[in-house]
Write a structure and sequence with these properties.
The chain has 10 helices and 13 strands. It has helices spanning about 30-40, 40-50, 210, 215-230, 235-240, 240-250, 250-260, 270-285, 290-300, 305-320, and strands spanning about 5-10, 15-20, 60-65, 70, 80-85, 100, 105-115, 130-135, 150, 160-165, 170, 180-185, 190-200. The chain is of the alpha+beta class and about 325 residues long. Helix 7 packs antiparallel against helix 8, helix 7 packs parallel to helix 9 and helix 8 (about 270-285) runs parallel beside helix 10 (about 305-320).
């Protein structure tokens, strides 16, 4: 599935069709203040230590999130090391009151380096700089359109803990602790976090059997969408909305198999499996009965992660007309 992600040739008409409608944000679009922080001695030293095994000339990937910027190796091992710069009052989830799900992690540990400024030789010491919000179990009510949870202080399994510079703590444990969590910057400073996590074993997605059932035009669109989801994650909804709509318009029996398989995509910091989750949910709202059948079959055969399938089934059953 190699090739240019931005355009493709329609095999029926020969027309060049543009896929990526909006270029994804790049690091140089950040504010001058952020670029100064990026070039600070403190960040550059910790960056060099964290990514000491990069090849000469190689740089870590830069991943823009709503409340943070993440730095990661392109080809990560089973034990992942990343750096996270929280924007002033930023957060690691998609919103300050939301908690991301982490079915990909066996465990995850966070180190709070501290605040960054352009002149920083070392991270600034800040008390109660971040707030760690989490549930201590996997079972939590999820949002209507995503597999994430909202914070709910009334829930006895929901907790918030403040952490200061130099604190190290587990954000995810195997017993379900931190499966849903968010880390919120409580200051107006740029704050540097270190992340180390071990990924669970996962099934490598195999799309070819599903793609064989598609015609040439459908296959090209499906392949392009899968590549976008693997590369851009949930930015796919912004950079190629027309393509998403076109795939959603496929007959569900032709789209759901490869989209359910895409729930096995590697999580590279861009919420990649959750992107497939969102497209499946769009299809399910149009065709709930068909979606239920495919999702139940996938759960029975264990062809995709259990958490995503179960959460999709719960959501789809709520929209399925009662007999």
């Amino acid at each position: 599935m190699a090739g240019d992600l931005k355009t493709f040739i329609n095999p029926e008409t020969g027309e060049t069709v543009r896929i990526v409608e909006v270029e994804p944000p790049r690091i140089f679009n950040e504010s001058p203040e952020f670029l100064q922080v990026l070039n600070s001695q403190a960040f550059q030293r910790i960056y060099s230590q964290t990514f000491s095994d990069l090849a000469e000339g190689e740089k870590a990937l830069v991943i823009n999130r709503p409340g943070a910027v993440v730095f990661a190796k392109e080809n990560e091992e089973d034990v992942v090391k990343r750096l996270i710069i929280l924007r002033p009052h930023g957060f690691t989830a998609d919103a300050p009151d939301e908690l991301s799900a982490h079915p990909e992690a066996r465990w995850a540990k966070i180190h709070v380096y501290g605040g960054l400024r352009s002149y920083s030789r070392n991270p600034m010491l800040l008390k109660k700089v971040v707030r760690f919000c989490y549930y201590d179990q996997v079972d939590a009510k999820t949002c209507a359109n995503t597999p994430y949870a909202h914070k709910n202080p009334a829930d006895p399994h929901y907790y918030e803990v403040e952490k200061s510079t130099r604190a190290s703590f587990y954000a995810v444990k195997e017993n379900g602790f931190g499966f849903f969590h968010n880390i919120v910057n409580q200051t107006k400073e740029w704050v540097l976090l270190g992340l180390e996590k071990q990924l669970l074993d996962r099934k490598e997605p195999e799309f070819e059997p599903m793609l064989l059932a598609l015609n040439a035009a459908e296959r090209r669109k499906a392949e392009t969408l899968l590549r976008l989801m693997a590369q851009f994650g949930d930015e796919t909804f912004k950079v190629a909305p027309t393509l998403v709509d076109e795939v959603v318009a496929f007959e569900p029996s032709r789209s759901l198999p490869f989209l359910i398989e895409a729930l096995n995509l590697r999580e590279n910091g861009r919420h990649n499996p959750c992107t497939a989750f969102g497209v499946i949910l769009k299809i399910a709202r149009r065709n709930p009965d068909v979606a239920l059948a495919y999702l139940e079959d996938a759960l029975e055969k264990r062809t995709a992660p259990k958490y995503y399938l179960q959460d999709l089934l719960q959501k789809v059953r709520r929209i399925t007309p009662k007999a």
